[in-house]
Design goal:
Layout (H helix, E strand, L loop, with lengths): L3 E2 L2 E5 L2 E5 L1 H4 L3 E5 L24 H15 L15 E3 L11 E4 L6 E5 L3 E7 L5 E6 L1 H6 L1 H6 L8 E5 L9 E2 L1 H4 L9 E3 L5 E3 L1 H11 L7 E4 L21 E7 L3
Parallel strand pairs: 1-14, 5-6, 10-14
Antiparallel strand pairs: 2-3, 3-4, 4-15, 6-9, 7-15, 8-9, 8-10, 11-13, 12-13
Length: 253
């Protein structure tokens, strides 16, 4: 596994968020939510942030309000994610948009990517105020969402990447139609039963980022996973389920 880092639990209001300390040192307040401290019920209990999974929309909006408050804003910037490769300039909160990455330099906006096994990625430029959040499942990784995101910045050597909690390679079984797409990534695809394979999405993401020009020491991977759905929602562990978020906001210098 690439360079691992631990998230730091921190109480913010009614929530416990998991802070990305390395991003904070670069001037971005970034954290990952867990599945606790919200108002959703049943399989979405309790801090579900996804409005597309069958949860009561009123519960979702209250959960998003609590996370926005933890980020120091009135409303999060959230887009409709489609497992594609589009990386957009972050709009104002409440503006409808569709894609799988948000790019900004503003301290007025808190960008959020929603996941439940896919890889949430944060990119921070150390020489400017630019940052981005990216949703990277196997489809996005295959179609180049990370390349599109990195292209929004200047020199990739100035970029720092943080890959948050996602399903581990040991728990992500895929068929040959998916495994063959990543067969060239060292250690990312391992044989499982019959024609099944185990795929390590974060190993793929870290490899792609290094191939795109990021320095190895600037690519960090969370040592936590979504396996089992205990702390973070996991679509593989339970369906239906909620979504958690990676949230990032540029700190005023």
């Amino acid at each position: 596994m690439p360079n691992q880092h631990s998230l730091s639990p921190e109480a913010r209001g009614a929530l416990t968020v998991h802070r990305i300390d390395a991003a904070v040192r670069l001037g971005v307040d970034a954290f990952v939510t867990d599945r606790f401290g919200g108002v959703s019920e049943g399989p979405y209990k309790s801090l579900n942030l996804g409005g597309h999974v069958g949860d009561d929309i009123g519960h979702v909006m209250e959960n998003r309000r609590r996370v926005a408050q933890a980020a120091g804003v009135e409303q999060l910037v959230i887009m409709r994610q489609v497992h594609g490769a589009d990386v957009l300039d972050a709009p104002m909160p409440g503006v409808e948009c569709e894609g799988d990455g948000l790019f900004s330099s503003s301290s007025d906006l808190a960008l959020a990517i929603l996941v439940a096994d896919c890889v949430p990625v944060l990119l921070v430029d150390e020489t400017s105020r630019n940052f981005a959040v990216v949703h990277a499942g196997w489809r996005g990784l295959h179609t180049g969402v990370l390349a599109r995101a990195v292209a929004r910045f200047g020199d990739p050597a100035d970029l720092h990447a943080f890959l948050g909690p996602a399903i581990s390679g040991e728990h992500y079984q895929v068929g040959p139609e998916v495994a063959t797409k990543f067969a060239d990534v060292p250690g990312a695809v391992l044989p499982d039963v019959r024609d099944r394979s185990l795929l390590d999405l974060r190993r793929v993401g870290a490899h792609q980022l290094r191939q795109l020009g990021l320095d190895d020491e600037n690519v960090l991977v969370s040592d936590q996973s979504t396996d089992g759905g205990g702390l973070f929602f996991s679509d593989r562990a339970a369906r239906p389920c909620g979504r958690f978020a990676l949230v990032a906001r540029r700190v005023v210098a």
